[in-house]
Every structure is written in structure tokens, then in C-alpha cells.
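HUMAN: Ready with one sample?

ASSISTANT:
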Amino acid sequence: MTEQTVRVTVDGKEFFVSGEKTILQLFNESNLEHPQICHVPEVDPIQTCDTCIVEVNGSLLRACSTKLEDGMHIERQSERAKEAQTEAMDRILENHLLYCTVCDNNNGNCKVHNTVHMMEIEEQKYPYEPKVSACEVDTSHPFYRYDPNQCIACGQCVEICQNLQVNETLSIDWSLDRPRVIWDNGVSINDSSCVSCGQCVTVCPCNALMEKTMLGEAGFMTGLKPDVLNPMIDFVKDVEPGYSSILAVSEVESAMRKTKINKTKTVCTFCGVGCSFEV
């Protein structure tokens, strides 16, 4: 069967696209930079972040789940689209403290940090609200830890665990005052049915899920002793969300970290598929 070709415009530029694709797939294949906090290519659209919203023929739609149709006029940067994207990102940051300069995950791969930078968000609109329930950091697993205080509840780790790895260990407890990811029925990670595949850590868009080997080793300041580092983190938490010039320091620090990072391509030995990835 011949694939149907549709004609659409994106910010006034014409595109001819074959096959059933979403608006976001077109953006990514065309190297059009666009916010997409909760997007994971390997699973169906999660539709939790709303940062990918665009204006299509006058309506605001999610780019991740909206299929391309002939004659669509798509605007990524219209006033309404940008307002919706910024509001969505502000709501995400309400659940996440920005202390990127002294964060272990400030290595160029943090999707939350990169999106804040891309969208030129200069101030955290809604004050961060600490989780009031089950907010203890879970360090029980030998390979990774979970910090619910930094979790934005995007659901990527849940989707990848349930629908790609098919382990069904992770879920989000929406009954809590501040929802968070739980393992099985709320047990510690090491007491759960987690098989240590690492998929959840890989897709996490921030520093909520992190490999333990990175903690204290990733940055120029993150390896400081806790009695020195913790006050620095508290200070940055207070000033970084409201001052773009302070946040810009983290960009410099991130660039400096890249000089320390060596990447090697290897093969995952978890199962017999033989997926290759970089470490």
C-alpha cells in the first residue's frame, strides 16, 4: 500500500510528509528544536507535560499525540503556543528545585535544564512546594537512587518499565498529597521486583533517578564534602530559580564537565537482544 503524503506548514515553511506521523515526529526528523519533556520515542505518547503544545489552525494541541493531516498550519512560536508551553514548564518547575550549578546531573543530558535554557525561562513563576508525603530519598538499591523531592511525575520511568521492559514494578501514587513514583506497593527499591535493567534511570529527564556512581563525581563542585556542599546547594536553590545570570553559570560548569567525560560504546548484557549504547 502506497503511503499517503500530506502537505503541512510549520511556521510558514512547507513540508511534505509520508506515512502516519505526529507533529512532534516531524519536528524531530526535521531538526526543529521544540520542548518535549515527557517524550520517549520507544513508547506511545505519555501526554503529561504539555510543553510540546502548538497552535494548529487556531487550536492548541499536543504535538506529541496529534497526527499530521493534510492542510495543517502549525505554529510553534505563536503567542498562544508560547504562553501554553511556558505555563506547562512553570508547572513542572513547581515540583523541581533548580540548583543546576551544583547538581550531579548537570552534564548536558538533563532534559529539564536544557528545556529551561531552550525556552529562555528566566524566573521560576510558581514557588517550589516540598513534597509533604513520602519525601525520603530512597538509596536502598546498590546501583541507583530516587529523590522524590526532585521528581516531576512525568511518568517516563513508569511507561518504560511497564510497556517496554514489561516488568510493571513502577507506578505513580496519585493518592498522595504530592504524587511520586513508587516501587510495587510502596516498598523500598531494593525490596521490590526491580530487575536492575536501568531503563528508568536512562529516561528520567532530571536528577530524580540517578546512578550512584555519578553522585559526587560528576561535577567540579559536587564532590565536595557534604558539610560544605549542602549549604552551597541550599544557597543555589534560593537564588538560581529567579536569576538567569546565575543559571547561566551552570551552562559554563556543564561545558567544563564535558572535558572530563569519556564516552565508550558497549553492548548491554541484560538480555539476548544485544542493544548498543554509550557509557
